[in-house]
Amino acid sequence: MGDRKPFIAGNWKMNLNRSESVKLVRAIAERISDQPGTDILVAPPFTALSVVKDAIGSAKIYLGAQNMHWETGGAYTGEVSPAMLVEAGCTHVILGHSERRSLFMETDEMIDRKARAAVGMGLIPIICIGETLEQREQGRTFQLIRSQLDQSLKNFREQKAMPLTTILAYEPVWAIGTGRTASPQEAQEVHQFIRQWLKEHFGSGTAEKMRILYGGSVKPDNTKDLMAMPDIDGALVGGASLKADTFIQIARFHAE
Ligand code: 13P
Description:
Elements: E1 7-11, H1 18-31, E2 39-43, H2 49-56, E3 62-65, H3 82-87, E4 92-95, H4 98-103, H5 108-120, E5 124-129, H6 133-137, H7 141-152, H8 154-159, E6 167-170, H9 184-202, H10 204-209, E7 211-215, H11 220-227, E8 234-237, H12 244-251
Parallel strand pairs: 1-2, 1-8, 2-3, 3-4, 4-5, 5-6, 6-7, 7-8
Helix pairs in contact: 1-2, 1-12, 7-9, 11-12
Bound molecules: 1,3-dihydroxyacetonephosphate.
1,3-dihydroxyacetonephosphate (13P) binds next to strand 8.
């Protein structure tokens, strides 16, 4: 974890209506006020962003969206612009989640455009990368991770400028929603590789400051061991973020 502030994010995916969302974020807000050492974020569906923002009030919980389009506006039926997310109260946006890549045909090129647009609008991108089981079994994990980094962060790479607040999330596809977590060592290996890639392209100052989250079946009982790894700085939590109890236990990994 180094000197980086831990970051625990809940990706609610396509779950929870507005009243359920408000109830959940209120329960989290009531119980995380004693967590000044950890950054907390929730990413509800678009329809609940505004009400969750209101429910957060003055609590220290960041609000993220799960996706956005890169254009500022126009004839893009079904899409949401970066400015719309800012207006709804978002500070962050998750980009390139594996479900978007595999189910909605998102490419690295699209993610690159989105990352650039997010930063242009003052949003902090949380950019997801990760290999499938097949790619891992074929021994192609590092090749794939390098390619996703090279392409999804192409603009930052070419500009030789990476905003330090940008967050990367390693989510091995085989660990998402399967109950099969990467072992802390398996995750650390990839996180270390990602940090090395950052160092190659942006220098060690940037690489040491940027946070890299792990995602994929994170639960209260495996968070502490994952967070003990030197290059794992936080968690992007799916299923376990939908219940206040489990999400709070994860956010309080220090105490578990
Ligand atoms: P699970 O925690 O349900 O495996 O989901 C992980 C994830 O995809 C978070 O973005």
